[in-house]
Protein 1
Amino acid sequence: MTIIDCARLGKRYGRSWALRDCSLAIPGGQFVALVGPNGAGKTTLLQIAVGLITPTEGTVTVLGCEAAGSPGALDRIAFVAQDAPLYQNLPVGDMLRVAAHMNQRWDPQLARTRLAELAIPQRQKVASLSGGQQAQLALTIALARRPELLVLDEPLAMLDPLARHDFMAAVLAAVAEDGLSVIMSSHVLAELERAADYLILVSKGRIQVAGEVDDLLSHHRLLTGPTAQTDKQAERMSVVHARRGGSQSHLLVRAPAADPGPAGWESRPVGLEELVLAYLREPGVAALPGPTADGPSRATIGPSKGVRA
Amino acid sequence: MVIDKEADSHSRPSSPIQFQLDPGSGLPTYVQLIRQVEHALRLGYLKPGDQLPTVKETVAALAINPNTVLKAYRDLETRGLAVGRPGQGTFVDGTLGKVALPQLAALRRTLLTWLGTAAEAGLDDDAMDALFSSALRDFSRSRGGSAGAPARQAPGDRRGSRGDNAEGVA
């Protein structure tokens, strides 16, 4: 089952496009990381997926074949917006009661157990909770809806490192226990590297990179060698980003992990953060799933798809 | 903290060991988990029959993807070091097989002798490390193993790609 399937999706505000020509088929059961600079279109993409805004062009379905925003889809998706919207003046217990009334699917036992684990008293006012506790409360409400897909828009932005760790741990524990799919947008690359199965990089309203994290990492290498040979190497392989020194240069290239690299060049694997930064520096280079020969669950990156800036 | 509460709610910790990541190691997370189990086996922290930490426990403690833990456990199972019991968890099944401990100790002594010679020749730690790594790279290449992919990984293993240099020195 695909959790989000969109084709040539676009959203225009006035004369400017917040999102353009987005085609994606994200397989289910995964933790999907959505990254990109501010204003790249991450929130727009998430809001279209959960049905909060309607696209200007293109099509989108979620969780197999539900139309985004349809009652069937809303029932199966939980969305936590950027500012973790909660009623600040209510005590925690009342906040839960409101959420219980507003949702068809609701698991009161899960909500109570989680709050007890978090040591958040039900009588305490939401406004007096710490940022980390508020994020955990919003997550509790989302999880108590027993969603198949959890959509989180920048949940880590306002949290300190410990709260970030605990929040990620809570989300991933829910994934381990219930097998739900997660899409999370974030700037915190270090946290995502250990959590994500699938990466989407959005830049200037377009999808620049999409694929399984392992596939992406195993198809990129960092080569270090003599600057004099850099142009020659760049001709025979697709270079994402090059840093040239007077005599030594570093090239982040697309090449299979097994490729030993050219003679005289050192070759090492790259990390997710390194990979994302290289693409962010080169908005003209894309790495998108190639023809899906064996279904959408296996996004392949063909070397022929490599585009040089 | 959430995590401690959760661990307490189980009557006792499921395993004699707890996983800990080393962010500076540069190793993929699943390789770190495998190494830690191997290490605990060598040092006697883990014995056959012992349970490994559950997936949920590990995920909640380290904030890592559940598939990473599953991948590490699959690798241990493939090599006969662990066995999964449905509904219960993953348990230590074997001992660190092929190379016996005395043989490992002998190999270590040979290596120490080499390190001594290298130090006498004026190499510092970094130079020795670089020399060893480069020799190991050439060696695995000449044996036909691809430089990056450890021989023990099954082809097509999803997270296999992150296992660069997974076969280090014992």
Protein 2
Amino acid sequence: MQSETLCVINHIESKEVAPGVDELDVALRGVTKSYGGRRAVDDVTLEVRRGEFFSLLGPSGCGKTTLMRLVAGFEFPDSGTVLLGGRDVARVPAHKRDVNMVFQNYALFPHLDVEGNVAFGLKIAGADDVEGRVRRALEKVNLAGFERRATTTLSGGEQQRVALARAVVTGPRILLLDEPLAALDLKLRKGLQEELRRLQRELAITFLFVTHDQEEALAMSDRVAVMNRGRVEQVGTPEEIYERPATRFVAEFVGSGNFFEGTGDGKVVRTRDGLAIEAAATGEVTLLVRPEKVRVNGGAGFPARVEEVLYQGSSTSIILRAGDRRILVEDANDGAIAHVRVGETTTVSWRPEDVLVLPR
Amino acid sequence: MKARFVALLVPPTLWLAIFLVVPAAIVSANAFTAEGLRHLASPVTWTLFARSFSIALVATTVCLAASYPAAYFIAGCAPRWRNLLLFLVVLPFWTNLLVRVYALKVVLPEAFQNSTGAVVFGLVHSFLPFMILPLYASIEKLPRRLLEASQDLGASPWMSFWKVTVPLTAPGIGAGCILVFIPAFGIFALPEFLGGAQAWMLGNQIELYFKKQQGSTAAGSALTLLLLGCTVALTGVYYRLRKTEGLV
């Protein structure tokens, strides 16, 4: 118990000091991997700090799983270097890396019971007190007393916890999680998100988490790398990714938005359909206004007609039309907006500081 | 509905009664006579039994060792190659066993013939497909993910093979061994042509008792029952193991 407390303290301290080279758990430098001429991972440079919860976020086929498999050692890069804890492991096979993985469909051994699965890595390493360590690992994932159960009799969530226990019991430097929650239903997923976060804090292990679910990535991560077509589009904290997306792809993938393409003169951006939007941008740019920043008030602003009102409990989505343009509005149901009715004409507006400028 | 169900059961029941129960009863009746039991207890029978068992065991082991890499390789090939290779594996079955045995006699060096080794060679040659096919079926079903999981947890490829691949393909190993061991145990054609006196097996003795003029139906029946009992017992053990290990 005491050593655990120490770990947590270490973890907190390590986050406060500026990350030097020693603090990097994973460093990828110009990593490229192709399959049959197609670049699955294209010149990726990434750094993951010690004890960080780091997510690789992107649509399917963006290369995030390949990138994770390169870190695990199931694939070797065509070029570039993979450093784990400062050591170049580009050619080191999976079983010699201090990295464990939680597989998407758990990949539990069907011929072994829960204890056999969790003990697998310990027995290979010739660890002592296997039984005790397995018991403690199972307690950590709330599966105390499950030792003798066959894995095939467990629910999806329980199998997921066994996979987690199996991966963390050997105390790896880095834990890789390949869409570990994708196969679970929404309620269970929310619960496991919290649990994963808690586990990561307690164990002070670096988590590299692969997901295509932007909400999950934003909610859980210290930092997120958004990937598209084998490349990293942006790396940043969830706030940075959402509030200051570097590219249109990031802006569109992480949340929804209203996009305006136009030409700026330093003060105002004019779109083709004649809108003039206040923004400090010059040249060809794309402007983004997040739906929750748009106000529907009937006062000053652009005229628009209400097409659809979708009440969603904690918020209401309003879809408006201004000429050929659809405008999305996300309104927190806090009573600030008077009831809008489908078909009525009103105006939409936003504060100038809520306009984000994206390069074209 | 029920009457039709019963009607459907009549032909197979009759078939089994005529071709299995009645002959088994006749064989048993012949075996459990003074003469039959005397032959069953004779040292000659048990020498042959031990020799047949060892030859079949060695042949099965060699088959397993030779087939596992082959099956593993085939399972790892692209689907269209897989089908071609499997076709090649079963191709020898298009030729009658006796023809293949005569062919072996032509091919094998004179000095190697008339030996236990030649019989084992012949058995492996003849029954290899029976081992490769069930092995292939179980290896092909093995999820690659599990091998990755094993290596991820620190097991070298060799360790992963023993700790994951072998236990998970145990049903295929068991089925292949049974399919090779049972016919090998009772074979008579191969030792007859390739074995000579030193590789005289239980099957040859049975043939001798039934066919030759100085033969004995009682003795032949007793040995037949011995072979049958052994086969049934082995199969029983295999299914029992499979059930308790939960490997289906």
